[in-house]
Amino acid sequence: MKKVRWLAAAFVGVSAVFPILTARATSLDDIQFWTGAGTNRAALVIYWNAPEVRNNTSVPNPAAEKSLVWGYRFNGTATAEDMFNAIVAADHRLFVTASTPYSGFGAQIYSIGYDLNNNGVFGIRLGTNTLAENAFTNGQRVVTSDDADDAQPLDAGDLFWSGNFGASWEMWQEQGGAGGFADAPDRGANPYWTPGDPDAPYFGSHGQWDYDSSGLQGTALHDGSWVGFTIAAGGLNFSDPDDPGTLAFDFHKHAPLTPEAAATNSAYAAQIVSSQGPFGASPYDDPNCVLGAPATRFYEGASKPATRVKLVEPAFNYAPDKTSKLIVTLNTGSAIIAKFDHPVFDNPANPYGLDFEVFGNAFYQGNGFISDTNNLNTYLLTGGGVYEPTKVSVSPGYTGQPGEAENDPSTWPWYRYDDGPYADTDCPTEAYRWNRAAATWTDEVMDFTKPVNPVLKPKLNAGGSTLSAADAIDLYDGSGGGTGFDLKESGFASIQYVKVEGLAGFSGGEVDALSVVRPMTIGDTLSVSPANVTNATAQLFFQKPGAENENVLSLNFTNLSDIAHVATAWLADPAALAAIPGTSLNAVAASLAPILGTDAVTFQADVALSAGANYTGNGGDLRVFVWSGTNWLSQPFAFDSANHAAIVSGVTNLSAFAISQIAAPQLNIQSGAGGFTFQFTPVPNCGQALERSTDLVTWESVTAFTPTNAAPVTLTDANAPADKAFYRVRVNVP
Q: Which of 137, 497, 507, 699 is the least buried, fewest Cβ under 10 Å from its Cβ?
């Protein structure tokens, strides 16, 4: 009998990396977000996943793969439609387009979106028509099916899918449809469903999930009911039953993955803990005005329509409904303590190191009367800002230290920003995006969780400048304005309470809202200025959508010639540009352009690209590539083990970047009647050779090939020696 000895080798010096799997099992008791009232409980699961086949659609894949669950309480009888509508109305992060209801079935759901980055910017672009926040009533908008397969999310960082003839939303319910599921239904090990009738795929199951063709209105709820939505595997092609999209739609249906609990975290202050006057005269006398998002429109007078809040015309008077109050005035001796519904952390990865914002009704002075009809391209900022500084303090709340009382905020630890920044100053609120090219307003709401770059304040405040209001909005770079605060100064790792107060010399100002600053994600933009380089705030972080605290990309500018706009984009398939050696771990694109003017901005930056939170190697098995315009070029890098990141220094041109892992294949040998077979998972786009030796000195190639993917391969050696042989796999990295 032949004696076969084997040696697995790949000349890249690495060890295998295995992903860390996290438990996702969720029961009714684990759900965080509840709405409705009653003793019966039901759950809604929505699973955003990239469709297997993208027939008939130009809709981008969701920013992340997420399965989320919400809860609904009820008494008596209720339907899935009741639950769906209540949850979409209650969770401000959900937005939906649908048809008019069909009798007995309810509405057909075309699109479901979720403000994943919690920035308050959401909506849909249908061709030239924009459906922003104001276009949705209770989170929903009735549309026709015409644009369902072409809809685009306004924010690329959101969870979003839309479809009709393309991959569309499909509905599921718990097995049997009679409730009784305390835990989320288990879809089992099979990746696809089991159709009841292959010729009529409208009935079937996937583990403990049943496919639901009754529609929202036709599906009754019971205690322990679960209703799920998933994106179809493929889009339909009725003319070709053998089309891959049709086959996927028929036979590759999939129920939701066991979900994560949808968060209740709001980007805005959620509760008034205490308040004391004197406040302003009505309508500026209600401390509850600081709750929720900043005002976007206000009622100016009987002869005018609702007016947009803008950096040259602030909110005042009432909301457009003519009864709701918008802002509160803090006179000397007044104070309001507001609470976020979650801790706000001191996060150096936030834009410019800022952690929360306060909005008032400050404004920039301009050259003349202002209204919504002004052309902001020619409306100049001439007189600086009109500010009424008001002091701000922060606290983590009750910490249990001696002298503290749980229900007495005056005994808690507080830090006051005595030397600024101050509320009702700095960057006035800008509610909507301005279309400079068309010289008109859009209905796209600006991002109230993204601060204005604070080093730009002198330029924005310069009186008598030639800076236009449109220029100022461009410098905001999508931010809704507000005064930004860094918690580092406070010494608190996190806070949950913010106090605004009118003190002698710091009173008479207004407060509209408080917001959390969020980390930027791939797809977001930021501005950077030479002043950022000077004061060491020129490192910009961008996280992976849906992956908290995973900084996929950071750009640390060490030199910059002018104010610039930095844009990022996710590359889901870097191989679409060209084959890339190894297994791509992360790939992103970044670009830089001047904000004001057209002169090219020169720069130098260090680019850090994450290998992913699950990477545990020492960087020896990694490669970093930059796109040259025609091919991928390998880059020298230093490995930051603390952050699992590869750092490319001295970059002077931004492009697409990819980080790839080239792990040594594990060679397995099996014997059979026909001899020995050799199995391993190859490294994509690298030359590979199965080699043989009889003395471990001289090696010869048995077979060589260059695989385009990581599909396992099986090889044989037809000329194996009769007595003994050693085998290895050699990998040649381009």
A: 137
Per-residue DSSP letter, 448: T
Of the candidates 676, 668, 698, 702, the one whose C-alpha atom is nearest the C-alpha of residue 688 is 702
DSSP notation for 680-702? EPPPTTSEEEEEEESSSSS-EEE
Say if residues 570 and 588 touch (Cβ distance below 8 Å).
yes
Query: In a 3-state reduction of DSSP, which class is residue 490?
Result: helix
Count of alpha carbons within 13 Å of 494, Cβ hemisphere only? 11
Whether omega for the bond prior to residue 278 falls within 30 degrees of 0, making it cis, is yes
Residue pair 396/497 in contact (Cβ under 8 Å)? The answer is yes
Q: Which residues pair with 525 in a beta bridge?
A: 567
Expressed in angstroms, the distance from the first to the final Cα of the chain is 40
| Distance, CA of 524 to CA of 353 (rounded, Å) | 16
Residues 88, 126 contacting (CB under 8 angstroms): no
CB environment 73-94: b (16+ within 10 A), e (fewer)? bbeeebbbbbbbbbbbbbbbbb
The whole-angstrom separation of Cα 447 and Cα 450 is 6
Share of residues in the chain with pLDDT > 90 (%): 68
Q: Rounded to whole angstroms, how far apart are CA atoms 62 and 51?
A: 10
The amino acid at 569: A
How confident is the model at residue 21, as a pLDDT?
A: 28
Question: Which residues fall within 8 angstroms of residue 538, CB to CB, at 6 or more apart?
Answer: 528, 532, 556, 557, 558, 560
* Dist CA 309 CA 208 (whole Å): 50
CB neighbours of residue 27 within 10 Å: 14
**Beta strand pairing call for 152-153 and 124-126:** antiparallel
Amino acid occupying residue 435: N
pLDDT band at 10, cuts 50/70/90?
very low
Q: How many Å apart are CA 158 and CA 118, to the nearest integer? A: 9
For residue 141, the tally of other CB atoms under 10 A from its CB is 17
Q: Is 153 exposed, middle or buried (0-12, 13-18, 19+ CB in 10 A)?
A: buried
Q: Are 475 and 427 a contacting pair, CB within 8 Å?
A: no
Amino acid, single-letter form, for residue 220: A
CATH topology of domain 525-661: Chondroitinase Ac; Chain A, domain 3 (2.60.220)
State the burial class of residue 584 (Cβ atoms within 10 Å of its Cβ: 0-12, 13-18, 19+).
Answer: buried
Query: Can you give the residue ranges of every domain in the chain?
Result: 3-13+664-732, 28-261, 271-516, 525-661
What pLDDT does 545 receive? Answer: 76
Mean pLDDT, residues 557-566 taken together: 97
CB 614 within 8 A of CB 624: no
Read off the pLDDT band of 130 (50, 70, 90). confident
- Both structure tokens of 37: 């009232």
Q: pTM for this structure?
A: 0.78
Neighbouring C-beta atoms of residue 681, cutoff 10 Å = 17
For 315-383, the DSSP string reads --SB-TTSSSB--EEE-TT-EEEEEEEEEEE--TTSGGG--EEEE---EEEESS---TTS-TTT-BEEE
Q: Measured over all CA atoms, what is the biggest interatomic distance in the chain, rounded to whole angstroms?
A: 100
The number of beta carbons lying within 10 Å of the beta carbon of residue 550 is 19
CATH class of the domain defined by 3-13+664-732: mainly beta
Buried b (16+ CB within 10 A) or exposed e, 316-353: bebbbeeeebbbbbbbeebbbbbbbeeebebbebbbbb
| Same fold for the pair 3-13+664-732 and 525-661 | no
Distance CA 642, CA 731 (A): 28
| Contact of 481 with 505, CB cutoff 8 Å | no
What is the phi/psi pair of residue 245, to 5°? -65, -40
Higher-confidence residue of 303 and 150: namely: 150
